[in-house]
Amino acid sequence: MSEHVNDIEYQNKPNNNGKAIIGMVLLIIGGLLLVRQFSYFLIPGWIWEWPTWLIVAGLYIGAKHNYRRSIWFILVFIGLAGTLNNAIPGLHIGNLIWPGMIIMIGLWIILRRNHSGANRNKWEKQWEQKWEYKWQQKWDKHYHTPIDPQPQTPADDETSGNIPPVNPNARPITGDDFLDATSIFGGVKKTILSKNFRGGDITNIFGGAEIDLTQADIDGKVVLDITQLFGGTKIIVPPHWQVISNLSAVFAGVDDKRLRKVGAGDNNKILVLEGVSIFAGVEIRTF
User: Fold this and answer.
1) 3-state class (DSSP) for residue 261
2) In a domain, 67, yes or no
3) Which of 55, 61, 136, 216 has the maximal Cβ count within 10 Å?
4) Distances (CA, A) of 155 to 146, 161, 206, 282
């Protein structure tokens, strides 16, 4: 119970690093705009073009997420290519930007699939069970002495390997427990029916996704990772769920259109939205 409460408190903490980064970006932009008003300083025109803003957005996203999300590198790469094309006369690489961007997005999606949804959760669970079981064995060996030790039988030798004990109350994982929605120049509409929903990933590149969770159920905190560029996501949740947004939005926003009711939501059903949204929006609704 205390662990669950700590999770809620952690998610509700303000992200001071993100606010500091936004403040620094605004200071730099304001300073450049102020300097531009004086004729004593010559600021090249290409610094105000869209590639520069892509670089700023990429660095902001990377710094906020400790450079763990590869989307920041894609934005910086595209921004640098466009900036070089505008800053250096005779360097014609503008026609290569779009093909290069499509190739990089494709590689990113392919490499990302092995670390998303059920595969990522399964790997994390196996790692956690392995180390918890290992440290439990060490603790029992050094600090726990049985009152009446029993002789070990051959059957015990066979079953006393490095396999962690099976939890009899664990519910089996089904294909609907994890969401993996990818939309590129199109749209995806999914209805989740799982009563053991564990989160997932939504990726929109010039596309949209509509996820209906009204018939689903969760236990504790569930993370939904959203990555979208020039797209949009609509999420429909049950009215008693709590929704916490930790999204990094660049020229985008999260619009919570749920009906406000008296009283707080269920503390045991928390949906956390994480990820990056660039020139795209996220809409949260309930029926």
Assistant:
1) coil
2) yes
3) 61
4) 20, 11, 59, 56
| 164 found inside a domain | no
Exposure string over 182-208, b if 16+ CB within 10 A, otherwise e: bbbeeebebebebeebbbbbbbbbebb
Instruction: Give the per-residue pLDDT at 86.
Output: 77
Quick check: is 166 in a domain?
A: no
Cα–Cα distance between 176 and 79 in angstroms, integer?
A: 38
How many domains does the structure of the chain reveal?
2
Find, among 121, 282, 122, 269, the residue nearest to 195 by Cα.
Answer: 269
Q: Which residues of the chain have pLDDT under 70?
A: 1-23, 25, 36, 38-43, 64-65, 68-70, 91, 94, 111-175, 260-265
Range of the domain at 63: 2-113
Give tens-digit pLDDT for 51-110: 887 888 778 777 766 776 667 787 788 888 888 877 777 767 767 777 777 787 777 777
Give the whole-angstrom CA distance, residue 82 versus residue 65.
Answer: 24
Indicate whether 131 belongs to any domain.
no
Same domain, 100 and 179: no
Buried b (16+ CB within 10 A) or exposed e, 16-27: eebeebeeeeee
